[in-house]
Amino acid sequence: MTTFTDPHLSLVRPVEPRTPQGCEECLAVGTPWMHLRMCLTCGHVGCCDSSPNRHAGTTARPIVQSFEPGEDWRYCFIDEAVV
Length: 83
Hints:
- There is one protein chain.
- By secondary structure, this protein is mostly beta strands.
- The longest helix is centred in the first third of the chain and has 6 residues.
- The mean pLDDT is 90.
- Strands 2-1-3-4-5 form a five-stranded antiparallel sheet.
- The protein is 7% helix and 19% strand.
- The two termini are 16 Å apart.
- It is globular and about 40 Å long.
């Protein structure tokens, strides 16, 4: 079995959520979101691809982690892979 080790995991830093109450951009303009993701390099909290505005998904924030209660998975937008 081959194990994929994402080289972008080296970018992960200890971060605090910048807006723990919700998506940073959606909060600023008053729009709804579905699920939240937090960037593990800067602490940005954004809404997922199922949300109307999709603020989490960008290669500028390469590694995100689910910001949903009970979830701890991570995703690399550069490699488009769960890590």
